[in-house]
Write a structure and sequence with these properties.
Two copies of one chain form a homodimer. Chain A has helices at about 20-35, 40-50, 50-60, 70-80, 90-100, 110-120, 130-140, 150-155, 160-170, 185-195, 230-235; strands at about 10, 120-125, 180-185, 200, 225. Chain A is an alpha/beta fold. The first copy, chain A, folds into two domains: about 10-20 and about 105-235, Rossmann fold; about 20-100, Putative phosphatase, domain 2 (DNA polymerase, domain 1). Chain A is globular and about 55 Å long. The interface of A and B includes residues 135, 136 and 152 of A.
Chain lengths: ~240, ~240
């Protein structure tokens, strides 16, 4: 079995384990209602999130020194709030909106899938989020990770090689990267993981909503292809 | 209350949370019996562990580049096995002996104390052990840490400032270190933590056995002084 050497399973988190978009659509609407602020919150979320990839790429290319995802989302918020009539938000309100990211919920299959996998494997995050945010999101969602690792530990974002290599080395697997597997809903992430000797598990998610077309199918012969995290657990004998 | 700002509690682990000595005395005796190897295992353990502080200090002073605790204990084993008639151990047996460290058990109060604290605070290790070992020890002991951080994340050992500052920064508390507390059974560790703005909690342990005299009382006015980890939980309102 191609995954029989696996001891440590890393997980992409945003999209793969947590449903950030549905959670934030709800949390932003609730926040707006509570504060009496009317706005196109779904449009704001789309514009806010659209800052993600360009910022990651600027760090990966070396155009900008590493800055973490919390800082990125605050910077991006300030860039786009004017377009949504939200430039009256106070600094305290901006912090409250920013920290809604810490209350995003797991997909319905995540806790069961991870709990089953944790009985046999060591489970570790490998996210582009900040270390503090990932710790908070795992605690909020009662996700049974054994440890948290993120881009912040490598001071660069996925898919830069250092992200994967730092995680493999911190888990003591430098000489045997085949003891590690990455689980993700993004083909590019698995492609990078495999290039460093890791095993790979793919599952499709509609993280951008029901119309999402990207990453709905495996684009390579990943060792595991499953419907969700319970499916990954089943494929891994848990 | 001097600890009312605390949000994140860091924990020293060897001695403070896990009873490494009693565990290893038992594990080494069991290993010897199973392998048919007679030796002064308690004497070996004392000599083995005695390599710890000199190795840490060599890294802190810059005399040696960082190497993790797994590597240190393997190196030290090779230095002392001859004194105990254990130089016939094969490389595989040395690895088995080394990995007995991953099976050390928590003190009897640890799981209850940490579980109560986890209901209100974010709990993070801050150990001189390697990242992989601490992840394994936490999983073995079912210790409800929310994240693992160790000297390996800072590439230097406690009490070097970078250990504490890296942990504070990764938890997003650079501007407010008073939101962090260190819990430890070693006064020197708390002294360093306080110098970087962290709150402090002390508890005495007999990690070196019933005759231990060091660190049986607080040597400063630590914010919390408790009998064990359940006592820390009580003092923190959990």
């Amino acid at each position: 079995m191609p995954t029989s050497d696996v001891k440590v399973i890393f997980f992409d988190v945003f999209g793969t384990v947590v449903d950030w978009r549905s959670s934030l659509l709800r949390l932003l609407a609730e926040y707006g209602a509570k504060q009496g602020i009317e706005a196109d919150w779904p449009g704001f979320l789309t514009a806010w999130k659209a800052g993600y990839r360009p910022a990651m790429d600027a760090v990966i290319s070396g155009a900008r020194p590493y800055f973490n995802l919390d800082e990125m989302y605050l910077e991006r918020m300030n860039q786009v709030i004017g377009d949504f009539g939200l430039d009256g938000l106070s600094e305290a309100q901006k912090q409250e909106v920013l920290h809604l990211w810490l209350k995003i919920d797991p997909w319905p299959d995540a806790v069961e899938g991870l709990t089953r996998l944790a009985s046999k494997y060591t489970l570790v995050t490998l996210s582009n989020g900040s270390f503090a945010w990932l710790t908070a999101i795992a605690k909020h969602g009662k996700l049974p990770f054994d440890a948290v690792l993120t881009a912040e530990n490598a001071q660069v974002y996925k898919p830069h090689p250092r992200c994967y290599l730092t995680a493999i080395e911190l888990m003591g697997m430098k000489a045997t990267p085949e003891n590690c597997m990455l689980t993700a809903c993004h083909n590019y992430d698995l492609d990078a993981a495999r290039s460093h000797g890791m095993k790979t598990a793919f599952l499709p998610r509609k993280e951008y909503g029901p119309d999402q077309e990207a990453d709905q199918a495996p684009e390579s012969d990943w060792e595991v292809v499953a419907r969700d995290l319970i499916g990954v657990a089943e494929a891994m004998g848990c």
